[in-house]
Amino acid sequence: MDFTSLIDNLGSHTVDGLTKGAIYALVALGYTLVYGVLRLINFAHSEVFMVGTWTVFGVYAVFNATAASGVGTVILATSVALIAATLASAGTALAVERIAYRPLRKKNAPPLIFLITAIGCSLVLVELFGHVFRQFFGPPFGRALVSIPTLIDTKVLFTVGGVSITNIQLIVIFGAVLMMVLLDLFVNYSRLGRGVRAVAQDPDTAALMGVNQDRVIMLVFVLGGAMAGVAAMLYTLRYDITKFDIGFLIGVKAFTAAVLGGIGNLRGALVGGLLLGVVEVYSSTLFSSNWEDVTAFVVLIAVLMFRPTGILGESLGKARA
Amino acid sequence: MSTTLLDRYATARKALADNWANGPIWVKLPIVLALISFCFYLPYLNILPFAQIRTDLGAGGTDWSSVLFLIVIYMIAAVGLNVVIGLAGLLDLGYVGFYALGAYSVALFGSPSSPVTEAIARKFDLSEGWAVPFAACIPIAIAFALVAGVILGAPTLRLRGDYLAIVTMGFGEIIRIILRNSEFTGGPSGVIGIPKPPGPEQDGRDYFNSLDVHRWYWLALIVLILLMFAVRRLEHSRVGRSWLAIREDEDAAAIMGVPAFKFKLWAFAIGAALGAIAGLLFASKQGVVEPNGFRLNLSFLFVAMVVIGGSGNMVGVLIGAFLITYLPERFRGFEQWRPFAFGVALVAVMVLRPQGLVPNRRRAKEFEDRRHEAKEAAADV
Amino acid sequence: MYSLDQQEVIVLRRSTRFGFSAVALALAVSASACGTTDENGGGDDGDCAATIGIMGALSGSNASIVIPSVNGAKMALTEWSAENEDCDIKLQEFDTEGDPAKATPAATQMATNEDFLGVIGGAFSGETRATKGIFDDAGLTMISQSATATDLTLEDPASVFHRVIGYDDVQGVAIANYLREVLQAKKIFVVDDSTAYGEPLANTVKTELGDLVADSDKTQEGQTDFAAVVSKVEAAAPDAVFYAGYAAEAGPFLKQLRDAGVEEPFVGGDGLYGADFPKAAGAASEGAIVTCPCLPAEEAGGTFAADYEAEYGEAPGAYAAEGYDAMNIFLAAFADGARDREAVEKFVDAYEGQGLTKTYKFDEKGDVAEENVVIWAYKVTDGALVADQEVPK
Amino acid sequence: MLLQLEDVVLTYGKIEALHGLSLEVAEGEVVALIGANGAGKTSTMRAISGIRGLSSGRIVFDGVDITKRRADQRMRKGLCLVPEGRGVFPGMSVRENLDMGAYTRRDKAAVAKDFERVFDLFPRLSERRKQTAGTLSGGEQQMLAIGRALMSRPKLLLLDEPSMGLAPMLIQQIFTIIAEIAHQGTTILVVEQNAQQALSRADRAYVLETGQIVKTGPGQELLKDPSIREAYLGVA
Amino acid sequence: MSELSLEKQTNATPDDEVVLEVDQVTLKFGGVVALNGVDFHIRRGEILGLIGPNGAGKTTCFNAMTGVYAPTSGNIRFLGKQVSGRQSHQITRMGIARTFQNIRLFPEMSALENVLVGCDARHKTSVLGALFRAYRVRPKPEELPEITGTGLTRAQSRLRRATAKVFGVSRHTLEERAGRKKAMELLRFVGIADRANDLARNLPYGYQRRLEIARAMATEPQLLCLDEPAAGFNPAEKESLMALIRRIRDRGLTVLLIEHDMKLVMGVTDRIVVLEFGQKIAEGLPSEVASNPKVIAAYLGEPDDAASA
User: Any idea what the Cα angle at residue D67 is, between residues D64 and D69, rounded to 5°?
Assistant: First the structure.
């Protein structure tokens, strides 16, 4: 137990935690959106994120962008990477829906079946990058960790009350919050977003109002996938790595964050993600990093004991209420 | 009607199941006995073409009896998880935690070199190399699992399905991490010197030794059969009926006088105990345990065994456990392609046959009806 | 609509038919049980034939640490077979995925098949711990290329077990010496990854360093965010950081360390040895030190490194040379006329000779004599591990 | 005929809820469908609106066979159901609920006009347009549900038990509004348990019993039918 | 109809003992008041009708009585014991059973099994008891296995009987056997024994309604609450249901009946309580209630002037 270390650097630990949690939060949105509308846990979402990180890596390789590249290349490469990762993740999410979920939805299968299918999908995606692609394209595909070039060097931007904030931390937190706000605005104020909420609240009545449920479900997967894509971009900026199985742990944590905040609730995902990130960094400081997962799950269980539907309660539809 | 292979399988399976259900006892009993004897004979199976199912034929193949043993261990675990998922309808993603508890119970109490026995021996001034005998480890393991099942279940069983899933998953991880990080469990290296079941000495070796693995397999098989018999008893009593009623409509069941919470807790505890027995046998045969052997994906694997086979149906669950353990061993030649193939197979089986390969009768009907309803509901152009 | 009676009759008739066919099947099965048996495995019993097993994680996320040693062993066999064409020695691979539960069936397979005269492996300590007893019971000699856990030989020795590398304690002492004497560090921060490899290694290093340890921390496998560890390192302001763990975590850790402005020397154990670590850490790995109880290929002399690269298209990875050496010891036994397990065991126990990486002579517990263990420090230079100096033991 | 149901059979699993139901609604009519609980009234509405598919039979709307259309497609054709228990979106504001009614419409100007119309019909909703629908009282929710349906400019408005759980005064009010809507030219099919109200307001009525039509006729006539009076009005 | 009421008067001499007391019960959901100071009681052996328009709070009242909701204020007492605060299954064991308005059977269980779940409420076998079946009892003569009609040969049955006599029978087996017997008897009582082995979901609608009643009766209640048991019935089915309700009362059960069909309510109940908008607006003999102007206004429909309003 290292209380002094935690208290002394509380500010910077909090910022570290928020940075970590911001990525959880973005990934958690995917779980929450799908759960809010379909009431099922899309366990393959973690791999949607993983595909995003590889896409960033691929774009950098195409632009031959490295730490030494000029400002122009860096800006171009990162913006293309952001768009490509968003598209790739959204596309992967959509493909999972079409190939694995839709046939089951048409058969009205119980949730447990979706879970197993999702685990199967995860495995397929993981193995694509971990093995299959390697057979065809060789390295860097495979099981080793892949380092992604650092295009933006970490610099301390400013220091507030002894807490120095780096450019990367700022980009990650700001980017995640921005995406959150955009998604929140979209869901709450656009016509399509209203359709999403309507299906989440009452699918039958939504259909009576002329909402095409299949299209809304596709939209939800695309939105969730896109958020995971952005998360992947921010992740690569912060950690500069990817790996075939990188999604698993983040997926578990993001899902935990979604439940913590109240699965189905967009703002809950943000709250849950940030809280989880901060809790993990605090606990890593107090004990050591090998206890952080225990802390995360204990916090989750404790929260669920007192608030069985998470901090903000569930329901995509009631996001505003 | 297009008679695809799948349809034909479904028809044939149903005909067989119906025949079986209606078969007289004088037919069923010899068949069951013959099947059981066949299972005992399996390690010696050596006549082509039947012997093709052995896993040790090709290059790089592995010992047939050892694979059989592992299959039966996973079958025990799957039968236990089936009580939780298939009978009581609770999604448990942390089942590996109980499996680990069983393994560590026998390791920590039974091994003379474990930190726990050493501490006890020091405290009570016992002789060097003292340890709890194997037989006494069994009740310890079961008790630990029961307690853990209740500790996990009591506060969390009131949660709704998906929340229960994540909480159990967290619980499984918590157990593994505690085992890994703690001094008293031997840390990441685990525990060695786990005791083996006692038995008469043969050819100068212990009865249960590392080379005559078929004896381990027989032992596990006997345990499996006993446990199946026990679970069957529960399933066909008021307990099974209550589980089923809870699964179908918990409120209505409660109003009919079923103490839903109590029975759910029992399901959890029984599942945990079976998982622990599987873990205990595994650890005893293995001789060593380490926390890495109890990762989350083993939990997913257990769930997949139950669901692929057809949750709620004992035979289905056995087949699920068999396929998932056996196929990767049999087709070791594919090496690196195995996980990918497994993923594809998982998706394919679930999409084509969501009720599982050998579904429970009721479940099969339910699926048929659900599909029927879905067809009606989706009045697509 | 049938009447009830009719229905019952039909059911009965059907079930009777079913019954008979089922009984017939059962009879057939039990009859076949008494039938002939067919000897499997076979293998020609010619004078000059044997099989050596090699087991380890050939698939799964840890395969990259194991496959080079398999390749090394294969090379040794190819070279030997070219000179002994009339002999049929096979190298049989067994994939364990690094999982002890999957390793035992493979081990039992080798142990119970008399064709196997030796085993190279296990590659990891966990699977070795789980299978050692099996091989011991069968009297099948093991030579591990990379299992370094101390307890394998010191606490729980098995007569058939040997290894061609120094164990963790030896390495730990050497690392402590390196930190203290070569780097002249006065304050050292020790981090381990809570694995069966990292934790004991870090513990040895900590014990050796004593007061010089400024602070220590633990991470875990799969971790990517090291913010908390980094700030602890910052707070401790050490002269050097030692990391006991694998490349997948060391990469991002080192990167985040450097990002935070910690520029002190970074030292890792043999878990980081191989091409993965510089790749994983990228530019941040420049100048990092990796120790390994393995002789640099160029020091080993001969053409091993070049041959390996020609054969497999990449520089020899971790333990490639150890795999080569282990195989050569078995081949030497065979050349010496050992044709059964007992003879092989006897030969290996008494073996003395110069291998690629060191001079071999096993002590009674199966370890290479401590004076023959060499530990080298490698420095990451331009994204590759370059031998820097031998570490004083 | 605006709407025709021919031999409609609807099943839940293996239970038939409707067996061979036929009815029709002409343009401009107010048709009531009465029957006891469980007689199949709600199932009929679900079949017409497309929430449930049919096992057999045919539904023709505005000259087009819509049997195989999804609910949202039927809605686009001008068929809008106010479901039993109102089915407002509880998490959305009044305004958003009304927006949902106009979900399929792109003509913004006309939609704006319809807002005015709905707020004219239901001044209470106008006062509460920012309030979340879940916090409205039962009567207000019913008004909102009807108003929302009107936002889609339906050719045929289906009302499933609009009086359910409402105080007598409110029931009066709701039926007055329904009469007003009909007066403005919308065709209405209403399912009602309050047979008195329904029959007295309807041009025609069908009596539904165990999934089949057992009687039909002008509302006032059925109101006087002794067997109806006994069974549904409780007056011997 | 007059005939029916005659029979009722002769038959129903309600004890004065109050079985259930609903005392000023108020129930709020958020801001919505579902029940507002509802107050009535049921005496042993009577058939009490609870009527009111849809949404008036009848089912909510049932739910409060069976432990699904806890009242916000007020008390519900059964045989003098507090009901609120207990869990549903405990209330069932106290002796209150109910059916559901929208049938809630266990659809994938057979009719017999559905009733058996109800029987289990009175069974004592625990989980361990079912597992080990070690608690053995000596069966009474009438509890011995039957010789005929068991599907076994006579010799087998005799053997079974003999072993039961000598070694006793586990309590589990005994209970299971008794449960089956009781369940079959109840199925016969409600008139659906011919489909005992069909899955509940495959039963015709009327059978499902009756099965619900049989299942509720299997818990051996003193008070049976029926929630719209005649919904969806045609007149002939309603007639036979009325007869069934009377026979249930004749078995000594007290019945609380929610029903819309006035003919049925008038025909079978001894007393009627009318709810509207969560409040009790009338209580009394059927004839009194039918002529109560408040009731007519709220429920039976306004006089003809409504059309002109």
Answer: 85
Domain boundaries, chain B: 2-380
Structure-token pair, residue A158: 């400013």
Fold of B2-380: ABC transporter involved in vitamin B12 uptake, BtuC (1.10.3470)
Instruction: State the DSSP code for E151.
Output: S
Residues in chain D closer than 8 A to B380 (CB atoms): 68, 70
* Nearest residue in C to B279, CA atom: C101
- B47–C35: do the CB atoms touch at under 8 Å? yes
Cα C130 from chain centre: 13
Q: Domains of chain D by range and CATH?
A: 1-78+156-161+188-236 (3.40.50.300)
* Chain D residues close to E309, C-beta within 8 Å: 172, 176
Of A217-221, C214-218, E124-128, E252-256, least confident by mean pLDDT is: E124-128
Q: Which residues of B touch D10 (CB under 8 A)?
A: 376
In chain C, residues with a C-beta closer than 8 Å to the C-beta of A239 are 224-225, 252, 255-256
Q: Does B376 touch chain D (CB under 8 A)?
A: yes
Cβ within 8 Å, pair E300-D233: yes
Is the pLDDT score of C11 beyond 70? no
Q: What domain range is A43 assigned to? A: 3-318
Contacts of E among chains (3+ CB pairs under 8 A): B, D
What's the number of domains chain A is made of?
1
Give the CATH H-level superfamily of domain C4-167+296-362: Response regulator (3.40.50.2300)
Show me where the domains of chain C are located.
4-167+296-362, 169-292+376-390
Residues of A in Cβ contact (< 8 Å) with D91: 197, 201, 315, 317-321
pLDDT of residue D30: 92
As a CATH number, domain E2-95+221-307 is 3.40.50.300
Measured between CA atoms, the residue of chain E closest to residue B264 is E127
| Residues in chain A, overall count | 321
**Mutation for testing the B interface, residue in D10, D16, D43, D52 having most B CBs under 10 Å:** D52
Alpha-carbon distance A315 to A261, whole Å? 11
ipTM above 0.85 for this complex: yes
pLDDT digits (tens, 9 = 90+) for E11-60: 444 457 889 998 888 988 766 778 888 899 999 989 999 888 766 788 88
**Closest by alpha carbon to B313, among B93, B13, B31?**
B13
Q: Does C108 touch chain B (CB under 8 A)?
A: yes
Selecting from 3.40.50.261, 3.40.50.2300, 3.30.1510.10, 3.40.50.1110, what CATH number does the domain C169-292+376-390 have?
A: 3.40.50.2300
A116 interfacial to chain B (CB closer than 8 Å): yes
Residues 160-199 of C with CB under 8 A from B: 194-196, 198-199
DSSP β-bridge partners for residue E43: E18
Nearest to E249 by CA among E31, E5, E48: E48
Is C19 at the interface with chain B, CB within 8 A?
yes
Whether residue B156 and residue A263 make contact (CB cut-off 8 A), yes or no, is: no
The Cα angle at residue A96 between residues A92 and A99, in degrees rounded to 5: 130
Contact C227 A149 (CB under 8 A): no
The 10s digit of each residue's pLDDT in A21-41 is: 999 999 999 999 999 888 888
Residue E22 · residue E38 · CB < 8 Å? yes
**Coil, helix or strand for B149?**
helix
Contact B172, C182 (CB under 8 A): no
Q: Where in chain E is the domain with CATH 3.40.50.300?
A: 2-95+221-307
**Phi and psi, residue B146, nearest 5°:** -60, -45
Tokens of A39: 């009431």
Model confidence, pTM? 0.89
D196, amino acid identity = Q
